[in-house]
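Help! Submission page says 'invalid entity' but I think these are all valid:
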Amino acid sequence: MQLTRRDFLKLSGAGAGASLAGGLLLSPGEVAAATPGPGDLGILYDSSKCVGCRACQMACKRWNKRPAEPDDAQGIYDAPQGLSADTWTLIELKKRSDDEWHFFNYQCMHCADAACVTVCPSRALFKDERGFTAYDREKCIGCGYCTRFCPYGVPHLERQTTTELLSGRTKTAKCTFCQDRIAAGIGGPFCAETCPVGALVWGQRADLLTTAKARVTDLQGQGLSAARLYGETEAGGLHRLSILFGEPGEYGLPLKPASPTTARLWQGVFQWLGQAAFGAAILGSIGAFFVARRKIHMEEVE
Amino acid sequence: MSVRVKGQGTTFQIRWIPKYTTVERFLHWLHTFTFLPLALTGLILYAPWLGSLAQGPAGMTMRLIHRVAAVLFGGVPILYLILQPRRVALHMREFLSFGRYDLLWLKAAAAYYLLGRHTDMPPQPRFNTGERLNALVMVVGTLTFGLTGLPMWFGRMSMPMELYQALVVIHDVAFIITMTMFLVHFYLAVIHPLMWQSLVSMRFGSVSESYAREHHGAWYYGEKRARQMWEAEHKKQEEQDEDKED
């Protein structure tokens, strides 16, 4: 007795059907590369206007009720070492040379193609219809994938005790574009509303882009040839645009912060392969069982 | 151990041969019942329609279950190493010994498991080719889960981002491979009509003499004798086939 062609076809059919059914049943999240939409909101940071007063930092802490960081190594409360679960926006001083100093404001870049959203398993991080990367703290399970896939290192897990490290009970935290203010119609991101010199402004991303381009041309006309715009196309297009002086690398910003290949590979390729494999194994087994039951006569078996 | 079954005018005897030790069986089931919660809590990330289980307090509970089960799952091989290091070494030797008969087994397996055609199945030791492949996948899988899972758990911030991302993906791939293997193993060991004794033996430790002879000839007769018998049998068959062709 040989494996007949009919049996073979039946099995292949079952395998193919399984893959298809698996794919339909368990289709993973949307991972297609995104770009900003026409009505998207944005923030523009103009480093040439910033005076480093840190009012944006204070405004952010106040509105979002984040405490000062008491364990700062230098004991300076208004200059934390970096972004953290309690510090969502931060001014840093950048020295290009002894004569040329600039400030830079670090906060969530609200990428159109956001790696944190791609890898978030609980959909706690999601793209708001107005373009920014919003956050639902209730849904977060504290897995920390976002903290290790973000090309800008923005999301951070909240402080963990040893018990919390063991159990994994924590939450992530990052700039939300003051989504609560936007939703309530009170205004925009509090950092931008507070900035006394117009270095941080918010509005329609398309308008900000026009403003920023004109400003860069203007600055270059004044002899500041290093002036450039950052964020027009990076990571699908950032909703936080920046005017820099010099290479992005000088600010610790990645040149090509595409949503990491691993995130795509993971969500877009391997999870599909996995589903196809599980589906094929299950339906293949069912198919094989019916073939075996018809062909094998247990009463003849010793 | 023997069972005497009395029917109408007939008496026949089933000889039961011990196949698995108590420790083997206990650890096998401990590994199974810690693998299941690990797989189910991991599977949630594959199925958006189970999304609500991956969110908020429910999601946190799933993560906690995953961690508790992971410690027990990883504890099984460690426990075995402590209890019976020599048997672990013995198993590894058994799992890693592949030969000519394994290729023949793989060739004949589909016809046997689907159609019940046994004549081409070469004699097998205590673990047949498929069981050894399954065991190796589980050994390598368990190691991979531990070596990627523990750093992701405790060393998240003290490693480069690229490494962490690689660990996540490797953990995922290891799951796809072991889970697929588990499904096949489950079908063959629990559902397949010819293999009903495999479940019995993993529960009670013994197989019948006829099952041992048919499925694990090299274990039942000894390797040398099983080979001789199989070769003799096949020579006879080849001659018959040639006769037919003439």
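Support: the input was valid. A stray whitespace character was the problem, and the output above is from the cleaned input. Residues 68 and 77 of chain A are 6 Å apart (CA to CA).
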